[in-house]
Design a protein that fits this description.
Blueprint: E1 2-8, H1 14-27, E2 33-38, H2 47-61, E3 67-76, H3 80-93, E4 96-101, H4 109-114, E5 117-119, H5 128-146
Parallel strand pairs: 1-2, 1-4, 3-4, 3-5
Helix pairs in contact: 1-5, 3-5
Amino acid sequence: MALRLIVVGATKEKFYKQSEQEYIKRLKRFAKLSYTEVASSKKSADRSACLQMEEVNILKQVGEQDFVILLDEKGKQFTSREFASKLNNLLVNNANLTFVIGGAFGFSDAVRQRANFFISLSNLTFPHHLVRTIFLEQLYRGFTILSGGNYHND
């Protein structure tokens, strides 16, 4: 099983990097996670040019056999326990899971068409750098739920 997270753009703020690294470290107990940053577009004024450049960078990283899950505002929302169950189902039925967190403009149509599933973390809008930490924490939480750990309280 391969578990991969592809993110658009580099994290510059130290506190975001530290929080990402903390959850990546914690996740090592449960899975081997590949974390890949791809370049974001510098043409932020032109949405379509931005999405096109990021599309190329994202799709270069996605394998033919990957089950691709986009973190997207229009995706399915889960409780933490529901997400853990979905994660378990995905891990059982797919050899390569690839989660993708897009840039400021989201995803191009080609990236959306390549996706197999869409997940939304909230109806709220978050900066994409913060989404990385939130998602990594939820991934960690999902694994602790599946392993019977006491991290999650409900």
